[in-house]
Design goal:
Blueprint lengths: L11 H29 L29 E7 L7 E5 L5 E3 L5 E3 L5 H13 L10 E6 L7 E6 L5 E4 L6 H8 L11 E4 L8 E4 L2 H6 L14 E4 L7 H5 L3
Parallel strand pairs: 6-10
Antiparallel strand pairs: 1-2, 1-5, 3-4, 6-7, 8-9, 8-10
């Protein structure tokens, strides 16, 4: 009688169970590791209740023209040189006004631009007895005014300021990644050289889960929002949703 040889291979069902256990342990370890890593990441800044924020916003200061703003310029009475035209502020701060030459407008408000163009047109030879009136408005909104979202986000870069943007708008616009740590986010506001740092702490959990507006600050031109991140999840953790 021939002895039956026992197989060393475990049943297929046990293999699947073992694999599931390994993946679960790795996902759990990854989750614990991410939580542990997030505790090590500091969150700079202070909470300033005096800052403009959701439900307590302020009007933006008068718009200051800078490159590459586009402006629609209308003139009354109509001029043979210009009636209505759209001009872009060039990198040198000038607008090319054709036969009237270049006019430097960078750093001026829209009202000041109107006055400067009217002064230039009324001071030329052959100007009509009735003084020119000039109207200037921005085309396509504020192109030279932006804020920035940096760090572990889907789209890192600059975004146009609309006037009523908040921290919540900015972070959702940039998008969060699987390893983003928005609960560690903070806002950095530009300041003159030598001036004190302006770093504002963001309570992301309060903003998102409790509707707390205290740190949902209004965004101003030049603001930087920093969103730290933990270690990106591994392939196995990604497959199991870790």
């Amino acid at each position: 009688m021939t002895a039956r040889k026992l197989s060393a291979r475990p049943p297929r069902g046990l293999l699947w169970v073992a694999a599931a256990v390994v993946l679960g342990l790795q996902a759990g370890c990854s989750s614990v590791g991410s939580a542990h890593a997030s505790k090590k990441i500091p969150q700079p800044g202070v909470i300033d209740p005096c800052q403009p924020r959701e439900l307590q916003m302020v009007s933006m200061p008068p718009y200051v023209v800078e490159p590459p703003d586009e402006m629609e310029i209308s003139v009354k009475p109509p001029s043979p040189d210009v009636s209505t035209t759209t001009l872009t502020v060039q990198s040198d701060g000038n607008i090319d006004f054709g036969f009237l030459g270049d006019i430097y407008v960078a750093g001026l408000t829209l009202e000041q631009v109107e006055m400067k163009i009217a002064q230039t047109m009324n001071g030329r030879v052959g100007a009509p007895k009735e003084p020119y009136q000039v109207s200037v408005r921005l085309v396509n909104g504020s192109q030279s005014k932006s804020y920035y979202v940096l760090g572990t986000v889907t789209t890192q870069g600059k975004f146009p300021v609309t006037g009523n943007d908040t921290v919540l708008d900015a972070i959702l616009t940039a998008g969060l990644r699987s390893n983003s740590l928005p609960e560690k986010a903070y806002l950095v506001r530009p300041h003159p050289t030598g001036g004190p740092d302006q770093i504002l702490r963001i309570d992301w959990v309060g903003i998102k889960e409790r509707g707390d507006t205290l740190t949902n600050y209004q965004i101003f031109p030049g603001d930087r929002i920093i969103v730290p991140g933990g270690k990106p999840p591994g392939l196995l953790s990604t497959l199991v949703g870790g």
